[in-house]
Amino acid sequence: MNRKALIFIILALLLGVGLGVGGTILAQKTIFKAPSQTTAVATVAKKTGVFLPLGEFTVNLQAGAFLKTTITIEVADAKAEGLLKEKDAVLKDRINSVLMNKSLADVKNIEKLREELLKKLNEVAENKVTDVLFLTLVSQ
Question: How many domains in the chain?
Answer without folding.
Answer: 2
